[in-house]
Amino acid sequence: MDLLITGTTLVTCDDERRIIEDGAIAIAADRIVAVGKSAELEKAYPDTERMSGRGLAVLPGLINAHTHTILTSLRGTVEDWSGEIIYRYMSPISYTMSEHERGVMAALGCLEAIRSGTTTLVDPFRHVVTYAGAMADTGMRLWLSESCADIDTRKIRFGDYSVDEAFGQAFLDRAQALVEGWHGARNGRVNCQIAAHAPDNCSPAMLAKLLELAGKHGLTRTCHLAQSTGEVASIRERYGLTPAAYLDREGFLSPDLTAAHWTYCTRDDVALLAERGVTLAHCPASSSRRGLHKVPIGWIRDAGARIAIGTDNMSEDMFQAMAIGSIVHRTGRGREAENGTSPTPQEVLDMVTRDAAASVGAGDSIGALAPGMKADLTILDLRSPAMRPIIRLTSNIVHYGHPGLVRSVIVDGEFVMRDGKVLTVDEDALLEEADAVTRAVWDRMIAANPDIAPPPGELRWLNG
Ligand SMILES: [Zn+2]
């Protein structure tokens, strides 16, 4: 698509973090070709189709650095239940789903993401090759990965950490198929990573195979790290190490790795991760659902680690992630946190744009409004009480932004949402199907795993 958006406010997130008033941005095909003042670009692009951006703000499309769209199927449940949830619910529910059901729930996540101004999802999970198409069809930019393990995550809740080579090989086969089928697909809009699920479910042999696979295909890597006390205890028992030290012993820590959470990292772990150049995918909203996230964020920020923000589970709302992230970061010990004003709104915005882009090795193509970058744009309506008055726009967006402000979304030079309407998804049909799928999947999951049945009355299905 060729388009010139004029008379708008550009929040560029470029190297100078410019905010350009009465600005314009020119798109040719899938790229941004010019960014500047309206008067100049109107002269330079007299024949390009124009769209008025008056009353709007144009941002680089938001990048969700860590999410699992399938887990929309748990929304409104485990946030309020006590106990371990990763191996008790997240793993069983994904194995309960059919290929079609996974596609439906992943598309629901994509739809929410688009409506929340997100243009890119980084989504490591299981059986991804079976629903990558459903996600790609929504028009989003994707970094997908098969989150590999060779210890059966359905058995861990019973204390069984035995290595199952056939189970691990099936993951590696699916990871290979995903990369071969999807890396670079749809004009480069779909890309792949190599993923280890977590230190406690990957043996040294599995980590070595994943390193080899990433090297063979030249891909960035991701994993979870120190996300639960159970993970920390099991690694301590098996190896006498922390999860970070275990990954380091196996050569897994390097600048092409993004690790989610770091919740139970020690100060030494944080220093090690920063020294190795590992990026933190921080999911402050998701991690705070049962109380403010305990991550040692002050140490992490003091150590200078790159931080990218994601939503993790049961939500794709990056505005909520930014607002809660700002609170979590300003609450953390260290540097300037005591005065409650660090990080700045622009630094938070960087974590969902340019820093998140860098975390997948795409800092030169997405995450900022600059000539040569991919045309991934989020367009917000500033004619909203939550955005007025406009004194410092980035402060408004980070503290008070919400998905209702998102007016249009462009990915790879094409509108996926325009003037409030999502163009790539039949929304009513999808919402209805997602409800039906979720209900059926929960029924089957509990029938097959009676030990995780919630207390009676906790699953109250309401018809929307
Ligand atoms: Zn996760």
Question: Which sheet architecture does the biggest sheet show?
Answer: 9 strands, mixed
Q: Could you name the CATH homologous superfamily of the largest domain? A: Metal-dependent hydrolases
Average pLDDT taken over every residue = 96
Structural domain count? 2
Provide the structure class: alpha/beta
What are the segments in which pLDDT stays under 50 over at least 5 consecutive residues? Answer: none
CATH top level label of the largest domain: Alpha Beta
Separation of the first and last Cα atoms = 37 Å
Any idea of the CATH topology of the largest domain? TIM Barrel
Number of helices: 17
**Cofactors and ligands present?**
zinc ion
Helix content: 25-40%
How many strands in all? 18
Specify the overall morphology: globular
CATH architecture of the largest domain: Alpha-Beta Barrel
Percent of residues in beta strands: 15-25%
Backbone CA Rg: 22 Å
Outline:
Helix 4 links the parallel strand 7 and strand 8.
